[in-house]
Amino acid sequence: MKPLNWVELSRQQIKARHGFGWSIQGIEKQNKVLIKIVYRFSTGGRTTVLTDIEWNTNNSKKFKI
After folding, report:
1. How many CB atoms are closer than 10 A to CB 34?
2. Of the chain's two ends, which shows fewer C-beta atoms within 10 Å, N or C?
3. Residue 55 belongs to what domain range?
4. Strands 22-29, 46-54: parallel, antiparallel or unpaired by DSSP?
5. Where are the alpha helices (H) located in the chain, listed in sequence order?
6. DSSP label of 63
7. pLDDT more than 90, % of the chain
């Protein structure tokens, strides 16, 4: 089995802790890739927050929601 990279592992941990609807992704803004947190409601609507935390393995502990 292929080991999980930090992105896959972080996504699995967030879903395990907080359940359905939570996700993270990297979004490029002003020559940086920042972390965007998304919550999807059971009705299909979404809400998002763009953080000022850079999307990289060194910051993975900063975004454990």
Report:
1. 17
2. N
3. 6-60
4. unpaired
5. 6-18
6. G
7. 46
- Residue pLDDT, tens place only, 9-24: 888 888 899 888 999 9
2 Cβ contact partners less than 8 Å away, ≥ 6 residues apart: none
DSSP alpha helices (H): ranges in 2-64? Answer: 6-18
Number of domains in the chain: 1
Sign, Cα dihedral of 5, 59, 36, 23: positive
CA–CA dist 23, 15 (Å, integer): 7
Indicate whether 33 belongs to any domain. yes
User: Which is higher by pLDDT, 2 or 1?
Assistant: 2
Residue 65 lies in a domain: no
Could you tell me the two tokens for 2?
A: 């292929």
Q: pTM for this one?
A: 0.78
